[in-house]
Design goal:
alpha+beta; two-stranded parallel sheet; about 15% strand
Amino acid sequence: MAAVVAGGVAPAAVVVVDELAKLTAYEPDTGLRRRATQALSVLLTQGRAPAVTVVAALQDSRKDVVGFRSLFPVRAALRLVEADETRQVLGPGAHDRG
């Protein structure tokens, strides 16, 4: 994935966040938590045009620790056991669709 710029092609940037809940819910520094949430929200809403992709991992999908979950255009869920987990991660009706 690359963005076309004047004179050539700009490289894509991939931002990887391991354990997203640490930054958005469990970080004791409220200022850092707020800045991280704002920065990720901006990258998720405006980063596609300049070829910025955000990949984030979360261990426990049952907890509502990511208030901007809907900003992720693509979600992948591995090993969800309960129907409630599936609904929370992939949206209503996902469990019924298989």
